[in-house]
Design brief:
Chain lengths: 338, 437
């Protein structure tokens, strides 16, 4: 009896809990970028997915150079070593886009929807640039040890029938996400610059009167956004493989995470990321074997006992988004300020 | 120069461009581009109704286009009697159960006299049980239908009606979905509509890719019936042989040119009709009210205009036009391939067309559809020629040269982004600006 229960737990852990934590961290990092731009610049940045893709692309290119020279991190993926350069490149890209494109509309005090259309232009340009540089195909760049814990090792350790595997990329994702989020919150809550950003996001006019330099706030926002985008893009690529066109599809779950949590609220972005990730996995998971373990005897249901086919993963984030829009449009943590 | 002379000049320039392609590449290519330009122009008219008249950002153009494609299947494909026998009635029953669940859920949500929390839980309970019931009825039917000769059919087929009907049905499909989205997302902040429509368009594509019993999914539906004659039949007609000899081109080419011209004539009629209707609407008191709402929602609301209601109306109308264009697109392709719908091509490119052409101006939108589609197609040969020129100094097997040539096609995405950004910056009102009345 207890063994069956533990087996069911291991099954859910392997197919829902572990992938969910990793995917949730990736979404949370992406949503943090979107939410930062929203809180300070007050528009929905449709180009964020491509920004993530750009960061991952630069990281991949640097990884290849490192791999060719035989430089690596042992069991950890080489991409971690290349990531700082990817971050720098993405930060430069964000700052350059702001100087060349967005600043003009800020000075003109354009309405949010104008920014949105401008970000579509940036989205086009970046997606072309990325495909031009690295091509539209899949790229493999993960190396090092593949698993932290293999399914068989877990079985031998616990004596259960069901294995629980943890990929290195998943471990790396979660640990980096924790570090990044801790750093970000320390920055926003403890440093003078972070406080000035929150003040600016809260009330622009009041912040200006207090002598906060808006251009500096915007610059720092883009620096943080670029760094977050590069990290999120690379981690997602490490975990699921890099393919340029998937990043446009990521925009929807990322926006859903940001809105569900309360757009403009960093804490909300993180909560939203996990809500979306776990709902996607829980709704599309086939509970067939879990039910088999939890019911007495050898009975196993005929069907997959799946609420929704895995093809509809994306629909889940959309439906949660719609429900939140209907019931509490401000999100779980009422948003709009940083 | 007067405004109309300026417009005439712009359209004449466009015609010259198409003729250049005809003379330099081939008339077949030129006509193929023209046909797609006409369809793109109808799509941009639809988006312009939403954006130009009312300032609504619809990021789900792709979804409405694909719904038009679905209409083409449902209307025109011959029914599959074996599939209907296997599970047709049961599938319809399942769908009815789904619809009843939605209707019941809305009724519970709106009308039930209980506290809010209880209402939420009751609605959730109803939704979950209704969904379970629908799956219970629908799933066996779907399996039965998909088992009927999966390599040939494996779906219900359609009604076997002339495909031109699907243009109207496509509009109706899109209108229904637009109404549902509008009910949820309009009235909230403007970005929410953009994100909601972006989401629903992806879901529509996933639905069309996966519900094989309805659309054959990624197995595609090929050989949709045509509203115009087939090349093979034309080639047997004597008058075509005479005509081809008189013009001095091979018979095969003449037949394909005539087919394309037939399509162009049909599309042109639809385009002119929609353009005329849109212009009438824009000049009417209704159009004036829409502009008033667009320019100042609060003031218009204070004057007693129902802002959300008008937004819903204009959103449904614009989406219907996009759905119609989607059905026309499937008709022109003669096939329905759900995997071919990409947001960059079907949503954001249409947006580039509207902005570049001139938002708020129907003529401008049409011109934008023509110009952007032309360069979207021609950017590939131009980009390749440019890359050949740039790399002409390099060694023939230089990896950089090969890379540049291989990826030259992607420059068109960059070009479109650049064009959009430049127009927004230096000429935000577009090629043919909105007329101030």
């Amino acid at each position: 009896m207890l063994i069956d229960f533990l087996n069911a737990l291991a099954l859910i852990g392997n197919f829902v809990l572990v992938p969910g934590i990793a995917y949730g961290s990736q979404l949370a990092l992406g949503a943090l970028g979107v939410t930062m731009v929203y809180a300070v610049l007050r528009f929905s940045n449709f180009a964020h997915g491509e920004t993530m893709s750009f960061g991952a692309m630069v990281t991949i290119l640097v990884t290849w150079v490192l791999q060719a020279r035989g430089i690596g991190l042992g069991p950890l993926p080489t991409a971690l070593l290349a990531l700082p350069i990817g971050m720098l490149a993405t930060i430069s890209l964000c700052v350059a886009t702001d100087r060349l494109v967005y600043r003009y509309y800020r000075e003109k005090k354009a309405v949010p929807v104008t920014y949105l259309i401008v970000s579509v232009g940036v989205l086009f340009f970046l997606s072309g640039l990325i495909r031009f540089i690295i091509g539209p195909k899949d790229q493999v760049f993960a190396d090092g040890q593949r698993f932290i814990m293999k399914a068989r090792a877990f079985k031998e350790m616990t004596g259960l029938d069901q294995g629980l595997a943890i990929k290195t990329s998943q471990g790396v994702t979660v640990i980096s996400a924790i570090v990044i989020v801790a750093l970000l919150f320390w920055f926003l809550n403890r440093t003078r610059t972070g406080k000035s950003m929150r003040a600016y996001s809260d009330n622009e006019d009041l912040a200006l009167l207090s002598g906060i330099n808006p251009e500096r706030v915007v610059l720092i926002t883009w620096i943080i956004t670029g760094a977050l985008a590069a990290i999120a893009g690379t981690l997602y690529g490490l975990d699921k493989g890099y393919k340029p066109f998937t990043y446009l599809g990521l925009v929807l779950p990322i926006f859903a995470s940001a809105i569900v949590g309360g757009v403009g609220n960093p804490l909300g972005a993180i909560a939203g990321g996990f809500v979306i990730a776990f709902s996607e996995l829980l709704v599309t998971f086939a509970y067939k074997r879990v039910v088999g373990y939890l019911t007495p005897g050898d009975w196993v249901p005929d069907g997959l006992v799946q609420l929704l086919s895995t093809d509809y993963k994306l629909a889940v984030s959309f439906f949660i988004l719609v429900i939140v829009l209907l019931i509490k449009p401000t999100g779980i943590f009422s948003g709009k300020t940083l | 120069m007067s405004r109309s002379a300026n417009n005439a000049l712009l359209f004449a320039a466009m015609a010259v461009l198409l003729m250049l392609v005809g003379a330099m590449q081939s008339w077949n290519v030129a006509l193929a581009i023209l046909n797609m330009c006409l369809i793109s122009a109808i799509m941009t008219l639809g988006v312009n109704i939403q954006w130009g008249y009312a300032g609504l950002f619809n990021a789900g153009v792709m979804g409405f286009t694909a719904l038009g494609g679905l209409a083409a299947i449902v209307v025109s494909v011959a029914p599959v009697p074996a599939a209907w026998d296997a599970g047709g009635a049961r599938a319809i029953l399942g769908l009815l159960a789904g619809l009843a669940t939605i209707a019941g859920g809305i009724w519970l949500w709106k009308k039930l006299p209980v506290p809010r929390t209880a209402r939420i839980w009751l609605t959730v309970l109803l939704a979950v049980s209704g969904y379970g019931l629908m799956r219970l009825i629908l799933d066996p039917a779907v399996d039965a239908i998909e088992a009927v000769e999966p390599a040939m059919t494996g779906f219900l087929g359609g009604f076997g009606l002339p495909i031109m009907f699907s243009w109207i049905v496509g509009g109706i499909f899109a209108a229904i979905v637009a109404w549902a989205i509008g009910k949820v997302a309009l009235g909230l902040r403007s970005d929410y509509l953009a994100i909601a429509t972006l989401g629903i368009s992806e879901i529509i594509i996933y639905f069309l890719k996966n519900e094989d019993w309805l659309t054959r999914g990624v197995k595609n539906v090929n050989g949709l019936p045509r509203p115009v004659p087939y090349e093979i039949d034309l080639q047997e007609a004597l008058w075509l042989h005479d005509l081809a000899a008189w013009v001095g081109i091979p018979v095969v080419e003449a037949s394909s040119l005539i087919v394309k011209l037939n399509y162009a004539a049909l599309f042109l009629v639809v385009l002119i009709a929609i353009f005329w209707l849109s212009e009438r609407a824009l000049k009417s008191p209704w159009g004036r009210m829409m502009r008033a709402i667009r320019d100042n929602e609060i003031a218009a609301g204070a004057m007693g205009k129902n802002v959300t209601g008008r937004h819903l109306q204009v959103f449904v109308l614009g989406s219907a036009v996009i759905g119609l264009a989607g059905a026309m697109l499937a008709t022109l392709d003669g096939q329905f391939t759900p995997a071919s719908y990409q947001p960059l091509r079907f949503t954001f490119l249409v947006w580039v067309m509207v902005i570049v052409g001139g938002s708020g101006n129907n003529l401008g939108s049409i011109l934008g559809g023509f110009v952007i589609w032309f360069f979207w197609i021609e950017a590939e040969p131009i980009g390749l020629a440019l890359m050949n020129f740039v790399t002409s100094g390099m060694a023939l097997d230089s990896p950089l040269r090969l890379h540049l040539l291989e990826n030259a096609a992607h420059t068109r995405l960059m070009t479109m982004g650049l064009v959009l950004l430049l127009v927004l910056r230096f000429s935000p009102r577009g090629l043919i600006p909105e007329v101030k009345r």
